[in-house]
Design brief:
The chain is an alpha+beta fold. It is built from twelve helices and four strands; from the N terminus they run βαβαββαααααααααα. The radius of gyration is 18 Å and the shape is globular. The protein binds glutathione (GSH).
């Protein structure tokens, strides 16, 4: 039996849920409330010492790291391969998933906390918020989280995150010059890895990053991936409309400042 510890709108959880749906696999939901800090509970830390979601438990085997979980699912379960044929295609796919893990994931966390989550955190007692941040195991992440909580979109990490997404989206556009999907003619784990970042930028209302006339293939790719049944089933079904609406509203409030950062990037 597959048990997934995840959070409804977490990008890494969306990635694994979409892969599970593409593979036609069912799973049991174990929701982890990231806002209240359930990721730091001693029981959860035994499963995932990094204090993050998702974690997959497959018949007692504990798996962490969303990219590696998706590779595991594709290796273990036959139906519908999510990897390109051939060593070079697979290298291309893994280069993309590695690069997005290294760059897009920390950058999306910065934008999400600076824009979407910050108002909710500011409404909580500061000492409680700081006590929660103090539990984040990685120093760089702890510092970035504190900086965007304190300074919002004026934090230097936000300007860096905008630059990161300009580069990530340009890289996707370049890949799409060669084939319909990011790593070949068929949808692969590369597309599933990219989807949550594009969606989050959309949910945060940062459309100038996506709707550039220089990114026509990315726009068409986004429409194609949204049309997959796995997108509805694994992603949209879990996204609370009130949270998405709140994210868009907060994004709208800071859009003029974000546009300045895009111009300066
Ligand atoms: N490299 C990890 C990153 C996981 C990650 O950062 N998850 C976020 C949600 S997308 C999380 O749990 N954040 C909670 C926190 O940072 O406190 C993976 O791909 O699984």
């Amino acid at each position: 039996m597959l048990e997934l510890y995840h959070a409804p709108i977490s990008t890494c959880s969306q990635k694994v849920r979409m892969a599970l749906c593409e593979k036609g696999l069912g799973w049991q939901d174990n929701l982890v409330n990231l806002q209240s800090g359930e990721q730091f509970s001693p029981d959860y830390l035994k499963l995932n010492p990094n204090a993050v979601v998702p974690t997959l438990v497959d018949d007692g085997t504990v798996l962490i790291e969303s990219t590696l979980i998706n590779e595991y699912l594709d290796d273990k379960y036959d139906a519908g391969s999510l990897k390109p044929d051939g060593a070079d295609g697979r290298h291309g796919m893994r280069l993309f998933t590695k690069q997005t893990d290294d760059t897009a994931q920390p950058a999306i966390a910065v934008l999400t906390y600076a824009i979407g989550a910050r108002p909710m955190l500011l409404a909580q007692p500061k000492d409680e918020v700081m006590a929660m941040f103090a539990k984040i195991p990685l120093e760089a992440k702890r510092k970035a989280r504190t900086s965007v909580y304190e300074h919002g979109v004026k934090a230097p990490e936000v300007a860096a995150a905008i630059k990161t997404f300009i580069a990530v989206f340009k890289g996707m556009e370049d890949r799409l010059q060669n084939h319909t999907w990011l790593a070949g003619p068929d949808l692969s784990l590369a597309d599933i890895a990219a989807m949550p970042y594009v969606l989050r930028i959309d949910h945060l209302g940062l459309m100038p990053l996506l709707e550039s006339p220089d990114l026509p293939l990315l726009a068409a790719w986004y429409e194609r991936i949204k049309a997959r049944p796995s997108f509805e089933e694994g992603v949209i079904k879990y996204a609370p409309p009130a949270v998405v609406e709140a994210f868009r509203g907060e994004g709208g409030n800071v859009l003029p400042e974000i546009e300045k950062l895009i111009t300066a990037a």
